[in-house]
Amino acid sequence: MKPIFLTQFLIEEQRAMGKITPDLRLLLEVVTRACKRISIAVGKGALGGVLGDAGTGNIQGEAQKKLDVISNDILLEANEWGGHLAALASEEMDHPHPIPEQYPKGGYLLLFDPLDGSSNIDVNVSVGTIFSVLRKPEGSASSEDDFLQPGTQQVAAGYCVYGPSTTLVLTIGNGVHQFTLDRELGSFVLTQRDMKIPPDTKEFSINMSNERFWEAPVKRYIDECVAGKDGPRGKDFNMRWVASMVADVHRIITRGGVFMYPLDSKTKSQGGKLRLMYEANPMSFIIEQAGGAATTGRERILDIKPNKLHQRVPVIMGSKNEVDLVSSYH
Ligand code: AHM
Ligand code: MG
């Protein structure tokens, strides 16, 4: 079969849907090209001198890894000059990054977690890049507030997983499509159109070491899964936790499951663990486009009106019937 490269896919979607503007196509090509560079840097590992701590911290108070900083720089550098963006924001930067004066500005806003799963970098376990695209509100002078739009306003979202292979999963609001990086050609090739998450599952993904901090509804749900055949669910469950959201969610999009970083007493004061704008929102958009569901337990993630750039939220996402069940326990 003739391979369909990302560019051809985007051009065909542009013709079919009329939803992709030339600037949005440029944006997606530029972001995914940057992901190829990140994939190469990640793949070099110790040989590239890229492992270990950067010796700096981000606004979340987390120690940055060298690869967090390298990936952030790659995405900034790639996206500054094309004229498609009004501003960028990242997990690794306190405030939005303006487009340098010498370049034209465009109508889109880009948010990213340049390298998700930082704790896995030095141990050679899958990590990834997550990104979200919004439109800059008409007539507004560029400011941080421009970014504070609910996830329903996203025009595109995607992620790359740097694992045994590098895969790109993308939605532009018309289903979810998977591409695999052909390392010899240096191109993303379409390998699965219209990914669908099975509505039922026997697999859950949660950091069990936080059990004593969970709220009652989450504890009840997991207890019932763990009780297996002998419990109210009447079937045995399996548990998987990579500890890179991007890899855990990718498994769920591929074969079903439910991923949770719920509210717990450890993270309650900050609203949760994962970040709304560049982790929960893009992943929720993708999950919903693949037929799954994404909630905090109390509300649909995509409906949340953000009040700050680095806002955190509880996350429960994946196979629809399981997510609905957890919600009903709330
Ligand atoms: P990061 O963006 O700094 O990598 O942190 C987010 C990560 C998620 O990828 C993952 O789901 C979670 O934090 C792991 O948490 P834990 O350390 O509790 O396993
Ligand atoms: Mg992250």
In short:
The protein has seven helices and 17 strands. By secondary structure, the chain is an alpha+beta fold.
Describe the structure.
By secondary structure, the chain is an alpha+beta fold. It folds into two domains: 6-192, Fructose-1,6-Bisphosphatase, Chain A, domain 1 (2-Layer Sandwich); 203-329, D-Maltodextrin-Binding Protein, domain 2, CATH 3.40.190. The protein has seven helices and 17 strands. The protein has helices spanning 6-17, 22-44, 66-79, 216-227, 245-255, 276-289, 320-329, and strands at residues 53-57, 63-65, 85-90, 97-98, 108-116, 127-135, 156-162, 166-171, 176-182, 187-192, 203-205, 238-239, 258-261, 274-275, 293-295, 312-313, 315-318. The strands form four sheets. An eight-stranded mixed beta sheet has the order 4-3-5-6-7-8-9-10, sandwiched between helices. Helix 4 packs across helix 7. It starts with 5 loop residues before the first helix and ends with a helix. This is Fructose-1,6-bisphosphatase class 1. GO terms for molecular function: fructose 1,6-bisphosphate 1-phosphatase activity; magnesium ion binding. Its EC number is 3.1.3.11. It catalyses: beta-D-fructose 1,6-bisphosphate + H2O = beta-D-fructose 6-phosphate + phosphate.
